[in-house]
Amino acid sequence: MKHFTTATEAMEDLRTRGYTADFSPAREYLKVTGSDTKLRSEEFNVDEFHRFEGTSDPGDEMTVYAITASNGMKGIFVSAQGTYSNEVSSELMAKFNVSDRGPVNMEGAVKPLDQSSHNQ
After folding, report:
1. What is the pTM of this model?
2. What top-level branch of life does the organism fall under (predicted)?
3. Residue ranges making up the domain that contains 85
């Protein structure tokens, strides 16, 4: 998985890889922007995600999700921290729970100092 500095950079890269639809949540499903297409949680998979933290405001945190629908449609869902928590069913939001995902790309992340090499 690539490391991106900004959400815009991640979205641009995903679009070049075929994730061209834009998804937004609507209580029980994801809606494809500009279309009547609706996807329930069992009709799509989250292929990858990229989390971004605001440098000055924790409220700027967001996650960019790359999604593939069972019909082959690919798109992007951008979730600002807590934005949809009251508007979307718990079943749908469980699909985006990043805590049960596989390894997360930490390249470029701040890592703790190795204390063992400094205590000698």
Report:
1. 0.73
2. Bacteria
3. 7-101
